[in-house]
Amino acid sequence: MFVLSFTPSFALADEPSVVEWARHRVEHGLVELLAQQENSRFSRARPAPRQRRARIVDSAVSLDKNRRAFLPFAIDVRFGSEWHENDVVGCVYAGSGDMYVKKGDSYRPASFLLGKNVEPVPSVCEATPARA
Fold first, then answer.
1. What is the pLDDT along the chain (132 residues), one digit of tens a residue?
2. Contacts for 10 with CB less than 8 Å, ≥ 6 apart
3. Buried b vs exposed e over 77-112: b needs ≥16 C-beta within 10 Å?
4. For residue 42, what are the CA distances in angstroms to 33, 37, 72, 128?
5. Which residues contact 22 (CB under 8 A, 6 or more apart)?
6. pTM above 0.85, yes or no
7. For the purposes of burial, counting CB atoms within 10 Å of the CB of 29, is it exposed (0-12), middle (13-18) or buried (19 or more)?
8. Parallel, antiparallel or unpaired: strands 51-56 and 62-63
């Protein structure tokens, strides 16, 4: 029994970090859906980018006014050989996985980019100052 107390916990080593979880959530919950949507539509909108990548902008978890933890993200696009950063910016909430994207000065649910008519949500993706 004494030996077991010095054995490292492999379960903790296998758990992804919150940053990796957030990037994965944005990749699968938004980037892939955007690519599927653009490949199936005919319109006069800008051509679909050749490639997209999701980045977690800040690895430090922030808290909003309601004390909910989130991480800011950005989606970069590549049309030719150059990457254009911050094509889409937003945040993903750690507890729920909810994603919001910035449109103008407000944030809307990420489903807005997929064609849903959703209203801006106040107080999301806005970090509150750290308490001393």
1. 444 444 443 344 445 699 999 999 999 999 999 888 876 555 566 677 788 999 999 999 999 999 999 999 999 999 888 899 999 999 999 989 999 999 999 999 999 999 899 999 999 999 988 665
2. none
3. beeeeeeeeebbbbbbbbeeebbbbbeeeebbbbbb
4. 16, 10, 31, 42
5. 56, 71, 73, 92, 94
6. no
7. middle
8. unpaired
What are the tokens at 100?
């919001």
Query: For the chain, what's the residue count?
Result: 132
- Residue 114, SS3? helix
Q: Of the candidates 46, 54, 42, which has an alpha carbon nearest to the alpha carbon of residue 99?
A: 54
Residue whose C-alpha is closest to residue 113's, from 24, 38, 21:
38
The letter for the amino acid at 81 is S
Both tokens of 30, joined, read 């938004």
Token pair in block for residue 47: 């051509």
